[in-house]
Design a protein that fits this description.
single chain, 259 residues, mainly alpha, two-stranded antiparallel ribbon, 9 helices, globular
């Protein structure tokens, strides 16, 4: 499937999924979860192994983040106060949607749209929006840093645009809701917070780091190099490498490589 179709079909599926969730019980959520895992599997099938591993990595790290942020910390809550089964695979679809968007539109346009949108949202959250969003404003600089310094900036920008749209939509229809203040800290938080995409940046960063090892463990022929020698090398390591191996706007997938 061409990248432009991924950029349209997957976000449309996610929007429909969130709308359906507002109408179903716990059993209905289980059915939506099974369906979403199937959709993710179908979306991954034609992609290169490295891209599949990246999406799987996002699912794994995002699920840890969901359990921590929602069930343990209580920063946000889903409608039934659980972690719906469709949420983990949906994170994989969000990543593929953002990746496809970054491969469909000119990278410069995607990056600038994300940077301007994030900065404007962050400023609005502490000035004109009816709900004060200090916590979100803290996350915006991190996203802007990655959009400025990382060679993977287009991917992060595409994911931000998808995440931002889904967050605004999901909270507006009641699929989930963010706490007014960060529990235990008392810092005002938006619904959704402007810096929510900064969390996705970390999911993506970690997924990009472990993806080559997942491919190698699954029988890949390319042995990954040790990209990170110390925590201080993180930004420079990310800056040297593109994350994809890759999805093109015409639908052709180039050969994955790890250098």
């Amino acid at each position: 499937m061409p990248a432009r179709r991924y950029a349209v079909v997957l976000p449309a599926y996610l929007a429909g999924l969130l709308a359906l969730d507002t109408q179903v019980s716990f059993r209905g959520q289980l059915a939506l979860g099974v369906l979403t895992f199937a959709v993710l599997a179908a979306a991954l099938r034609p992609l290169p192994p490295l891209v599949r591993a990246q999406a799987v990595g996002v699912v794994l790290f995002a699920t840890v983040g969901e359990v921590t942020g929602s069930l343990v910390w209580g920063v946000y809550h889903y409608r039934l106060h659980n972690l719906p089964l469709f949420i983990p695979p949906a994170h994989g679809l969000v990543y593929l949607s953002g990746l496809a968007l970054s491969r469909t539109l000119p990278a410069r346009i995607v990056v600038w749209a994300a940077a301007i949108g994030a900065a404007a949202w962050g400023i609005a959250g502490v000035t004109v929006l009816p709900r004060l969003d200090v916590a979100g404003a803290f996350g915006v600089p991190l996203l802007l840093l990655f959009l400025w310094r990382s060679r993977s900036r287009a991917t992060y920008a595409g994911v931000f645009l998808v995440v931002g749209a889904l967050e605004l939509y999901g909270t507006s229809i009641g699929t989930w809701r963010w706490a007014r203040d960060l529990p235990g800290l008392g810092i005002p938080d938006g619904n959704p917070p402007s810096g929510v995409a900064s969390g996705y940046v970390w999911f993506d960063v970690m997924a990009l780091l472990v993806a080559p090892w997942l491919v190698y463990a699954a029988g890949g022929t390319l042995k990954p190099k040790r990209w990170i020698r110390s925590s201080g090398d993180l930004l420079s390591s990310i800056r040297r490498r593109e994350p994809i191996g890759t999805m093109s706007a015409s639908g052709a997938s180039s050969r994955a490589s790890v250098t």
